Amino acid sequence: MNIPSTMRAVVLTGHGGPEVLEFRDDCPVPEPGPDQVLIKVGACGMNNTDVNTRSGWYSKTVTGATSGDALPKVDDEDPSWGGAPISFPRIQGADAVGTVVALGADANPSLLGKRVMVDCWLRDWNDPLNKDKTGYFGSECDGGFAEYAVAHHRNLGVIESPLSDAELATFSCSYSTAEGMLSRANVGKDDTVLVTGASGGVGSALIQLAHRRGARVVCLASEAKHADLAKLSPAAILPRSPGNLKAALQQSIGQSTVSVVADIVGGTYFPTLIDALERGGRYTCSGAIAGPIVELDLRTLYLRDLTFTGSTVLPPHIFKDLVGYITRGELRPMLAATYPLSDFHNAQAAFIYKAHTGNIVVVP
Predict the structure, then answer these.
(1) Quick one: which of 81, 264, 308, 265 has its CA closest to 174?
(2) pLDDT, tens digit, for every residue of 205-239?
(3) Which CATH number fits domain 6-170+333-363: 3.30.565.60, 3.90.180.10, 3.40.720.10, 3.40.50.300?
(4) Residue 12: which of 364, 350, 345, 337 has the closest Cα?
(5) pLDDT, tens digit, for every residue of 246-302?
(6) Which of 90, 202, 219, 329 is the most exposed, having the fewest neighbouring CB atoms within 10 Å of its CB?
(7) φ and ψ at 359, to 5 degrees?
(8) By C-alpha distance, which of 72, 168, 51, 68 is closest to 114?
(9) Class of 176-310 per CATH?
């Protein structure tokens, strides 16, 4: 294949508002290192990580909800998911799907010409379970908001599926995040799982993946999105923040508590969620879009024998399992919209506004 020397990409130039994202048509096409491959990107999904990293929301100086706006105060020492600075310029985009078009000297030769999905988690492959030796594709290295990207050959899943590149680009970040949460909470067939923010990428993934484990699912989402979520057949769909959650649960599923809360929202509704957990219940979290600072009565935690788990860095098997689910057709992509790379600002504005259900994808 004739590979050009330059490419189009969206480049993050620093922390701030949308203006720090620049569309360029003269970025050099990256060259794969010895263990890497070059991917011609077919599509790349959008995620909250992109917005939070761009704004610097991960900094401990920030206490409000995610908004995508420039923040008045960001600590330069902890503005990324890992609590450390990242370098600029940076091409973001974790959910890359495409075709392998070139190989490094030590990369697996069987990958050439294959359609692949990128595992978002960068690892030290000599110590792959060490959470302190991890990075994120599109954060600690350039990602998929470009025509070409490089990735370690072990960070790829070969995809054999009738789904389009755009549909496949809805999976990697959102669904691996959701599967990681459910795995940490040990969700199984005897559980009832309450999912917050159910209309987003991770939320809609949680519904499907909890179903796959045999659990019963109750969703919280704005009423405008209930019809879309009904297609995923949850046991019940409730408003985003019912005034009396336990009464709403009793009316909809015949019980006032759940065994698991899978939360990506946080904010002021957090105590209500915790009160809806049964004795011995589990709370698992991988996001706080409504705000990271919450109120917790420790007596509720210990007197009711609750278990809290956070989920970010995932064990390698989560991505491999996800590729298997996709290949076997066990998951449904929730593709809300696609945008061309040149219209990136409007795509991210739509993502932040959150009128959609599922995932928004950029197509180079």
Answers:
(1) 264
(2) 999 999 999 999 999 999 999 999 999 999 999 99
(3) 3.90.180.10
(4) 345
(5) 999 999 999 999 999 999 999 999 999 999 999 999 999 999 999 999 999 999 999
(6) 329
(7) -125, 145
(8) 168
(9) alpha beta
